[in-house]
Amino acid sequence: xxxxxxxxxxxxxxxxxxxxxxxxxxxxxxxxxxxxxxxxxxxxxxxxxxxxxxxxxxxxxxxxxxxxxxxxxxxxxxxxxxxxxxxxxxxxxxxxxxxxxxxxxxxxxxxxxxxxxxxxxxxxxxxxxxxxxxxxxxxx
Length: 140
Known about the structure:
Layout: H1 3-14, H2 17-41, H3 52-63, H4 76-139
Helix pairs in contact: 1-4, 2-3, 2-4
GO molecular function: voltage-gated potassium channel activity
Keywords: Ion channel, Ion transport, Membrane, Transmembrane, Transmembrane helix, Transport
Subcellular location: Membrane
């Protein structure tokens, strides 16, 4: 995909109010729940999420579905936050990817339609030339 195509898709997505709302909700959930994870887990026996950076890392990997498993909540509160992140991740991250996919498909369809219309215009020009030639031959 060329830079122009990427810019076109990005511009189209940036004008979509629904896309912006979903993206902001996803980012908000990741930041809030990720930052909330550190104080919940801090000090627990076997806790690997000890600071806000760890909490954000856990939130991002959980929401995107990557889930490396390097950080896992050990407290009940941390696990409840993790469940919320998983649900938000599946729903909102999936919606973001669906918007991007639809916009890519729409851009490709527009490109193909323009090519078809250009080819039809070329055929019309050729037909006009042939009609002129036939008209000239018939008059002779």
